[in-house]
Fold each of these.
Amino acid sequence: MRADQQQTVCHQNVIELSNISFSYQQKPVLENVQFALRERDFVGLIGSNGAGKTTLLRIIVGLLKPDSGTVNLFGQPIGQFRDWNRIGYVPQKNAFNPLFPATVREVVMSGLYSRNKLFRRVTKADGIKCDEALHAMNIEDLAGKRIGQLSGGQQQRAFLARAMINNPALLILDEPTVGIDAETQQDFFHLIKHMHQHHNITFLMVSHDLDMIRSYLGEEPKGQSGKLKFYVKHSHEIEDCVETNLTHSLKDLRHSMEREKVGAGLGNHN
Ligand SMILES: Nc1ncnc2c1ncn2[C@@H]1O[C@H](COP(=O)(O)OP(=O)(O)OP(=O)(O)O)[C@@H](O)[C@H]1O
């Protein structure tokens, strides 16, 4: 394979947005948004309150339809896209009712029921996937607890486990650390950076944490559309693009995190 072909394979567009416009009733929120996110990118989406970040994510995951423009997912127009298991989505925390009477295990398992399979029977293999996701996020011990009884940081891990249960190629996170203390935020960022660098997962994350975004993704945005700014980091250098041996296994995630911590002389903290 020639080098330029190898790059093409590595740099496939995972999300392509062309001229997306959207209004709520008569109020325009997004106008002609253009952006492409490639495999192995980590994209931080920044914008002031009301800039339309959540609206854009909801359009990307098919919950809202744009007034005009097109969305392609993994090279397919969104209307034809069926492979929703490849995408994990964690909505804003306050979008979830904390009194919802479900256990952590039930919440995580619900990530398996994609749009086409709402009433599928739970199999033994599903249970194993759930155990792996709980283990990867280090919350096995919380499996039987009501989701509403957990701390903000624990809830975030549970929602991340829910989004990860299908081993997605793309994770979309909407302000994942809102309301979480600084130390837990740092652990969370460490976890998702690790997933980006070592597990071949592509990220699109809305955040107000400009310091975190800049420290990982660089000082300047790579793209801008209206009030939205896209900060981008690719998980490896172009010349390494032929590398394909990145681990993409949920089972291995926690072990490799722990190896990294031992290597860096860090203790175990949740
Ligand atoms: N269901 C709705 N009906 C009418 N207007 C809405 C609706 N949802 C959001 N809006 C408005 O659309 C604009 C964009 O909202 P959106 O939630 O996408 O912004 P955001 O950039 O995610 O904001 P924040 O940083 O505050 O989360 C806001 O002015 C908001 O009030």
Note: The pocket of adenosine-5'-triphosphate is lined by residues 24, 29, 47, 49-55 (CB under 6 Å).
Amino acid sequence: MTHSAVNGTSNSLDNEFRFSSDLSLENIRSDQHKFCEERNWLQFHPPRNVLLALVGEVGELSELFQWRGEVTRGLPEFTSQEKVRVGEELSDVLIYLVDLAEQCHIDLPAVVKDKMKKNAVKYPVHRATGRGDKNDDPSAYKQETSDIGDMQREREEGDGSE
Ligand SMILES: Nc1ccn([C@H]2C[C@H](O)[C@@H](COP(=O)(O)OP(=O)(O)OP(=O)(O)O)O2)c(=O)n1
């Protein structure tokens, strides 16, 4: 697909965007754990509290987008200050998400990898291309090995890694 069905922007432009750092989820987990430990705040971070904090930050992120109508990829409609706020709220969401995973003893990087493999099986390229609807057909899960192979091949062709 060369153009987004939603706002008409070119996907090839999206492909130029990269993160500048390879900060790992484990880095975030250990730094956040230390941040709480140093303040004797672990007592305030059982799973339910952290989940509510996460939802609160998702709300703060949503406030930045509300009543604007659809916005363009890269947020050219936002002022630089508003874009800084988006980055800060995204950070709060990620920090609390990682914290929640720790509080639940969920190995987040491992389950994310696994979930992305399942997504590729559920939405195989040959069936899902150009379709934005949810796949509620469980039989799609039965094609596991060939579709995971497809995804890995595509990734290797895309950036030469793995
Ligand atoms: N009990 C707390 C309080 C804060 N934080 C950390 C994680 C978040 O990244 C950030 C959240 O801080 P605030 O609650 O002050 O929220 P904001 O930074 O969004 O400020 P504001 O709500 O004023 O916009 O600080 C935390 O881990 N545990």
Note: Confidence is low (pLDDT under 50) at residues 1-12.
